[in-house]
Amino acid sequence: MKDKYLVVGAGITGCVIAENIASQLGKEVLLIDSRRHVGGNCRDYRSFEGILVHEFGPHIFHTNNGDVWNYLSRFTDWTMYFHRVLANIEGMEIPVPFNLNSIYMAFPAELAGKLENALIEKFGYGTKIPILEMRKTESPLLKFLADYVYRNVFLGYTVKQWGVKPEEIDESVSGRIPVYISRDDRYFQDKYQAIPRLGYSKMIENMLKNDKIEVRLGCDFREISDPNNYKMVIYTGKIDEYFGGKYGELPYRSLRFETEYLNTRQFQPVAQMNYPSNFDFTRITEFKHFLPQNTAGTIIAKEYSMPHVAGKNTPFYPIINPENMSIYEKYRSEALQLKNVIFAGRLAEYKYYNMDQAVASALDKFSLIAGRV
Ligand SMILES: Cc1cc2nc3c(=O)[nH]c(=O)nc-3n(C[C@H](O)[C@H](O)[C@H](O)COP(=O)(O)OP(=O)(O)OC[C@H]3O[C@@H](n4cnc5c(N)ncnc54)[C@H](O)[C@@H]3O)c2cc1C
After folding, report:
1. Which of 82, 219, 251, 333 sees the fewest Cβ atoms within 10 Å?
2. Is residue 25 included in any domain, yes or no?
3. Residue 326's CATH number
4. Domain that holds residue 364
5. How many domains are contained in the chain?
């Protein structure tokens, strides 16, 4: 037993680490997850018509990291996909992040021209300016634009998403919503942008096709009677839960998805439509845009944001602010004392990781594990 590794959590982080332990070190791994599926929040499944549905919200793979791209490409083929998002603003469907195309859709041509010139003069073409920074400018034109975007794109969405005022949100989160001074209306500009051709779940299942990996689903870490019997534990669950919440609970936002089948070929022109001001949901995703799928019907999911309540709903987004980070730091310094436990992934590192960042970090963690063998 002492030669075997225990990986807690079969999300993308846990699966990458388990795959590497098995294939690179040739060691046995027990991979457990309290949920009844592998893939964690990246999970997708096929509807009766064959539409791939992302169970936990739209997942678009995008990265500039060639190593991560090459690593995952061993387990999947890809379909190229450039994400485009529209926001329903004052009844118009306008591209976001707000860019030069959006300006020409939202305002009369003469005003739009002036705004374009002012933006390029002040910030330069091709730059991304966070909305809170634009609001601070002196130019009345730019201030008008910043206020418009702030009010119509950012404010309502952020209040719904985080349940707080934008000023209370960490800069690293609010900085994610920029004005892009460009005609490029893709949501991401990364070098690699794609969806696994047969889905994320299939990609992850391919990673786990190794005789040395035993997968046990519906199994919580608390059911493992003696973790000390394993050579090492790689823990990708909530770090506060691991330590019994002794320094306080780390808060998260959770989500509820209302998924519907509609008897129509297409519901909306793009995969993602944001609703900053109207309705209680933040966005609607239509899944058949991700992969070419010629079906008579379509599937959409309305997404509602709410506080996470342990044991009741799923923790999705860590709430990064100084108070929560100081709680996290207490857990982290205790975690560093544990020689045979590695904490990895979104929940264990209390960090907003995209999939590529989660994979990159998992590969780094594996190097650490390999170095300790
Ligand atoms: C709505 C939404 C949209 C997203 N969109 C994108 C996107 O477009 N592009 C992108 O790159 N990234 C996106 N992400 C981020 C992506 O989901 C994460 O990067 C990724 O899921 C992180 O993987 P992880 O393994 O670290 O965590 P998780 O997927 O959360 O996996 C952790 C696993 O551990 C299990 N676990 C926890 N505690 C225990 C325990 N005690 N015992 C056993 N098992 C346990 C959990 O059940 C879970 O399955 C999105 C995230 C969300 C929430």
Report:
1. 333
2. yes
3. 3.40.50.720
4. 5-38+208-250+319-372
5. 2
Q: pLDDT tens digits, residue range 26-38?
A: 999 999 999 999 9
Domain contains 123: yes
Residues 245 and 323 in one domain: yes
Q: Could you tell me if 232 and 340 are in contact, meaning their C-beta atoms sit under 8 angstroms apart?
A: yes
- Whether 246 and 323 map to the same domain: the answer is yes
Ligand 1 centre to CA of 9 (Å) is: 9
Q: Candidates 44, 59, 223: which one to mutate for ligand 1, based on the most atoms within 8 Å of Cβ?
A: 59
Is the model's pTM score more than 0.85? yes
Ligand 1: atom nearest CA of 57 is 1
Give residue-wise pLDDT tens across range 89-128.
999 999 999 999 999 999 999 999 999 999 999 999 999 9
Other CB atoms closer than 10 Å to residue 77's CB: what's the count? 10
Nearest to 100, CA basis, from 86, 115, 79, 81: 115
Residue 202 in this model has a pLDDT that exceeds 80? yes
